[in-house]
Design brief:
Rossmann fold, 2 domains, 7-stranded parallel β-sheet, 6-stranded parallel β-sheet, 15 helices, globular
């Protein structure tokens, strides 16, 4: 469905004379159409990013269509005022990609779209073909660093660098795109994701909500909780955390629990490896693998620290933003987040840090950093957390990210309305 009561945002090239000419020609001025394509609408970073983008553009008066395989976030797409068009874009089969490109071309023409925005590689291949056939710009958004085990993988991943504008969610990812593909800096825009500072606010989490999480995890109020949030994937570095936890036990660290919150989404091989490692290291008493938590603000509220042990570039993890918004110290690997996401020494002085950093894959260093954090006086840890929320408020607030997004779209697609004949027919794929 189109956004309700859209308010056009005229570009500098739209004049009153142009409006009069359109009216005289028997046409109406409708919002600029934007086609957002994403493989799935479930729980991934690209999925959430596509939904957030639809909301920002819809509120600004753009007519947004989101094309994806149906998932749990479809309701949020429609709530944002965007149209949902079901199409399986989660395949890297060349025949399917070509077929999807033809379908996207038809949708793009019917909605008179001025730009196609791809989130995810498989979707981007179809989007590129459709954009070239229709003659509109292609935008791509990078959320993480992809592994490139061979030439084919490099070619497949490289589609994300072929957008007319390439959006990176962090400086770390922007640098990766430049280094790997030689993409000119003027084609790259760093545009972080935003964080809901009202939902993720310590003051909003009632005592009962925190206690519900504590009971679910079987922990007391004095237990120090090391929280790791994210799907059970090797690149997330859960195995590094297990080894670090084993070192904590060896050093006599007590009254703590490490909780992994996430799902493996069918990747049971790595989950099995993790369990074998937990058993081999004798850490079954201090490691818990929990199911995804519906009330994540409450989960952060009971955490003492939130850890990202990523072993490959992760871009910008919402988990780290949410944790800092909840005034929790964070510990990240040097591949888990860059200095534009988490403030750590020596990049900033101790009085400004929002977390600590360790070398990716180094479980001994992670254990040392954890001990360093827990050895700090409680007021010092609280101060780190408070600075984290201030950092989120000043750099990742929704209003700020929305302003940056709309500025980019005005540059690429124009803003407001374009002349179109009426009536439009409802499409079907």
């Amino acid at each position: 469905m189109p956004a309700s009561n859209p308010q056009p945002v005229p570009t500098s090239g739209q004049s009153e004379r142009g409006r009069s000419a359109a009216d005289a020609a028997g046409t109406v001025r409708e919002p600029v159409g934007v086609l957002i394509v994403v493989p799935t609408l479930d729980v991934g970073a690209a999925d959430a990013g596509a939904v957030a983008l639809a909301g920002i553009l819809g509120k600004a008066g753009y007519r947004v269509s989101v094309v994806s395989r149906a998932g749990r976030l479809v309701a949020e797409v429609r709530a944002a005022g965007a149209e949902f068009v079901p199409l399986n874009l989660d395949s890297n089969n060349p025949v399917v990609i070509l077929r999807n490109a033809i379908a996207l071309k038809r949708v793009a023409r019917e909605c008179n779209c001025a730009v196609i925005h791809a989130h995810g590689r498989a979707a981007a291949w179809s989007a590129l073909l459709a954009a070239r056939l229709v003659g509109v710009p292609l935008l791509t958004t990078w959320y993480k660093g992809f592994r490139e085990q061979n030439l084919f993988k490099r070619l497949y991943n490289g589609i994300m660098a072929r957008g007319d504008r390439v959006i990176a969610v962090s400086e770390q990812i922007a640098q990766l795109v430049k280094d790997r593909y030689g993409t000119p800096g003027e084609r790259i825009t760093v545009l972080p994701v935003s964080i809901d500072l009202e939902r993720f606010a310590p003051a909003q989490v009632a005592h009962e909500r925190s206690e519900t999480v504590r009971r679910a995890w079987g922990i007391g109020r004095d237990t120090k909780v090391i929280l790791v949030v994210g799907r059970l994937l090797r690149r997330k570095g859960h195995h590094v955390v297990v080894r670090a936890v084993a070192r904590l036990k060896e050093r006599g660290f007590k009254d703590f629990l490490c909780v992994f919150v996430g799902e493996d989404r069918g990747r049971t091989h790595y989950t099995g490896e993790l369990w074998d490692l937990v058993l081999a290291t004798g850490t079954t008493d201090v490691i818990r693998m929990a199911a995804p938590v519906a009330d994540m603000p409450a989960a952060y509220a009971v955490a003492s620290v939130v850890v990202s042990a990523a072993v490959q570039p992760e871009g910008l993890q919402r988990t780290l933003l949410e944790a800092q918004a909840m005034e929790r110290p964070v510990i990240v690997s040097d591949l888990g987040a860059g200095p534009d996401v988490v403030l750590t020494p020596p990049t900033v002085p101790e009085g400004r840090i929002t977390g600590l950093r360790f070398s990716a894959g180094d479980d001994a260093e992670l254990a040392t950093v954890l001990l360093r954090l827990f050895s700090m006086p409680e007021p010092t840890r609280r101060a780190i957390g408070a600075r984290g929320r201030d950092w989120m408020r000043s750099h990742f607030a929704p209003a700020l990210i929305s302003e940056q997004t709309l500025r980019l779209y005005r540059e690429v697609a124009g803003g407001g309305a374009v002349a179109m004949p009426l009536p439009r027919q409802k499409r079907a794929i």
